[in-house]
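Quick question, first post here. What does this chain look like in 3D?
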Amino acid sequence: MCNLFIYWLRCIFPDIDECAHPDQHSCYGLCINMPGTFHCRCKDGTYGDPLTKGGCSSHTGWKIGLGVGGGTTFLLLALGAPFITRKIKLHKAKREKERCFKQNHGLLFQQLVSRNSDIGGRMIITLRDLEKATNKFDPSHEIGGGGHGVVYKGLLDLQVVAIKKSKIIVQREIDDFINEVAILSQINHRNIVNLLGCCLETEVPLLVYEFRSNGTLDHHLHVEGTISLSWDDRLRIALEISKALAYLHSAASTPILHRDIKSSNILLDDNLIAKVSDFGASKYIQIDQTGVTTAVQGTIGYLDPMYYYTSRLTDKSDVFSFGVLLIELLTKKKPFVYRSDDGEGLVTHFASLLTQGILVDIIDPQIIEEEDEAVDEVAALAAKCTKLNGEDRPTMREVEMTLENLRGTKKQVPNTTSRRKYEKDHYMSSGELTLDTSRQYTMEEEILLSARYPR
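> Answer (accepted):
Ran it through. Tokens below.
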């Protein structure tokens, strides 16, 4: 009955073949005619929308397109990778420099620069310039080092410079370097090393100094062989160091205590002019203060024993270190390694021989050959400077005036002494030395010292 009905409908309404007219029925793929309708799909091997003209595309074309697109993308990534990597590295380096600048108190330094344009114009140096000056801190540029860093030689703006870089990245080293910048940026003295600038873009600041090609006093004094610095040069160098310390103690805007005076921290130029260096351990002290309690810093052998045991730092601590340096100049012995047959250190043994009147046993034979009267007075001055009680030591201004007087007398009075005065039986006793050197100044000079330089 149902089949008859369908047959009857087909007779009355004959089927239209839509696939015969694809444009009219919008079939652009494979058309399948069905009773009363049609089915349109993409041909085998293609995909897409068959009802849209050009809507079907082959799988091969898609793969080729994908391959071409992927290859192009890969090529662009390969070519752009170095540029992108460089950009990332530059950005990270910039952020690291900014972090280090803040960590190294760069903002405080900028305030100092803003108050003194002369300092600002010469003090700020970039890491890039220093790397260029030292061939990226190549080991072949190393010229020395000490307790506060390694020193490199470099060429900066056609000027040979010394660049100090810390060995250890700890906060104390950073504080020491910043301390040195703050102090040396405000100091101008003929016998103090000149700080040219600093770089705050690294983990620990880099300091740039004028380069001194003649090495250190330690190097010249303790040369191999018997010939060392002449006594005249030693006395002049001692006077120059005393001038620098007297300036730091009493002529600078705020008194400065060096805390690490030793022969390896004294640089010499081509004319053997002394320059005090390495202010990493230096300390400001207010004018109305007689001392300050602080962590002990310095070098064993030169270190004031009272400062070592009490941690109380005064200007007399520098006086003690200078006194040890005088003994070193007289004896050509290194304070931190010397031991007598009885196990005494250099200062104790020197004082013992002076008391016995047999200082000739320890005086450098070269000085004895040169036969200079000033040796006795310098020995007595060294003994005063290294007295255990700081109050018994002279001030650096008094030391400077004593050495100035000795230098003046030496130039005026011809040397008529004989080597015989250095023999044990004729060498001055400690009592005679004390008597002779107890009055180094005129009454007017004493009054001037008392008025200008409080003790």
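The longest strand covers residues 149-156.
Residues 416-455 have pLDDT under 50 and may be disordered.
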